[in-house]
Recover the amino acids of this structure.
């Protein structure tokens, strides 16, 4: 999938993304901010911000004297973020490609939740983000832990295959596997030139109720599997997904993540 196609998927998913957010995205966004630790008065870039799951708690942390630039290409998700941030002028949601983003002064913190693996070149794109940090600034990346979402994805893909012999591939899969264990994420962050690298594993297992299961199918990148289908086909996929989850006796969703942080330059 191209960057334009990925953006189209997330724009189409915005309403379901918002419904899913309290169960999944918002708790995970708070996890990222708990580890990136934005401070009062700091300038923060939230790359691939979506609807603001991590940008909004970061804005609360920096307070009125700080600034959060929340950047994404998905218009509909950005509108969700703007609506949620009406009482927080310290955060602005901007439609832009993070690869082309420029700032007049260096950021104290650049953070990204589940976003860097969507970059066409994860290494080059992440180094460009590091170039936006002041000397001594911090970089924080959140990604899925190995095996997270795997059983759910298997159930969904099997249900989709009943309707389509060639379901679209998930664009982030190969890149995300490069950073899906603590060791791999630690090594990757050090390869970018960061010092003081730390990686935390955060278990997260919300109950896999039907609302969460179907919400994840519709309100995430998984939606790319469904968009080519006719409405009747989508309905059959939903039934097939829930049937397979029941057969496997999956009671919780493994949505565990990793958060890696490091420091640039003289902050070593």
């Amino acid at each position: 999938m191209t960057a334009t196609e990925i953006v189209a998927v997330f724009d189409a998913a915005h309403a379901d993304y918002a419904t899913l957010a309290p169960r999944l995205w918002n708790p995970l966004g708070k996890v990222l901010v708990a580890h990136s630790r934005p401070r009062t008065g700091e300038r923060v870039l939230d790359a691939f911000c979506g609807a603001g799951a991590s940008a909004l708690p970061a804005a609360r942390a920096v307070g009125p004297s700080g600034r959060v630039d929340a950047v994404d290409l998905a218009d509909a998700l950005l509108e969700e973020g703007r609506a949620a941030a009406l009482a927080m002028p310290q955060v602005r949601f901007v439609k832009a490609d993070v690869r082309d983003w420029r700032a007049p002064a260096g950021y104290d913190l650049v953070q990204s939740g589940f976003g860097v693996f969507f970059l066409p070149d994860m290494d080059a794109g992440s180094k460009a983000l590091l170039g936006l940090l002041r000397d001594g600034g911090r970089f924080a990346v959140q990604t899925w832990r190995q095996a997270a979402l795997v059983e759910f994805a298997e159930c969904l893909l099997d249900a989709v295959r009943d309707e389509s012999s060639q379901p679209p591939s998930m664009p982030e899969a190969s890149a995300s596997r490069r950073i899906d264990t603590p060791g791999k994420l630690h090594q990757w962050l050090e390869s970018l030139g960061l010092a003081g690298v730390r990686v935390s594993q955060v278990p997260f297992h919300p109950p896999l109720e039907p609302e969460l299961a179907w919400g994840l199918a519709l309100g995430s990148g998984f939606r790319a599997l469904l968009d080519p289908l006719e409405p009747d086909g989508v309905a059959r996929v939903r039934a097939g997904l829930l049937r397979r989850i029941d057969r496997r006796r999956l009671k919780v969703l493994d949505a565990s993540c990793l958060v890696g942080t490091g420091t640039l330059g003289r902050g070593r």
